[in-house]
Fold this sequence. Notes:
36% of the residues lie in helices and 22% in strands. By secondary structure, it is of the alpha/beta class.
Amino acid sequence: MKIQNTKQKIVIVECYSSSVNYIHDIRERGYEPVLLECYTPKEELEEVRKINDKAYAFNRDSCPPILMANKQYEETLKLIRKLSPLLILPGSEPGLELSLRLSSDLGLKNNPLSILWNLRDKFVTQEVLKSAGIRHIKSRIVSTEEEAVDFYKKEQGKKVVIKPTQAAASKSVFICKLENEVRKAYRITDKFVKKRNNKKEKIIIQQYIDGEEYVVDTVSCEGKHVALYGMKYKKHSST
């Protein structure tokens, strides 16, 4: 898509969920938002288009220009460099890696690419919290069904969570309270991870923490943290 607007651009990578609010806010500040979608193979394009358009429908304004990343990263870098963006923002977890990489290569302000896996990988995140002496969730990377069962048994009958280390939007996340549920969840998640063909992605099993659950969106800059949005989950069981 050709972009002719002369206002300075702010690129949002994978603009989902609450990040659609960025669109209106960027325009209010006198800048022009541009949406960048991660590369999608042709055979998946129609399905992804429906998902993305549904996400953009929550935007209060007209939809900004939409660009798609090239399979070759260097081509994507050239495309975004031509826009001379002021900032590149991740709009959701799947866009985090591309956002940080582009920002780093273009010399823009952002979190350093070196801490990507502290933010993106669920096991690494817990290990970083643990090493800093901060309360964390007991976790283990498992590569077999029996390893998952072993972790479950050591939790003495408590519920456990099985999920991929890098997926988002609750994909292939299971809460298990019985051994047969642990085994089934592991097999399903193993197939999911192999299908994604990401060599860095593993399967993680964690202790389940009871209690009220909240979501808090924050933004941080130079050591200052601001809470933007909060939500409390209402949990219920399906039968």
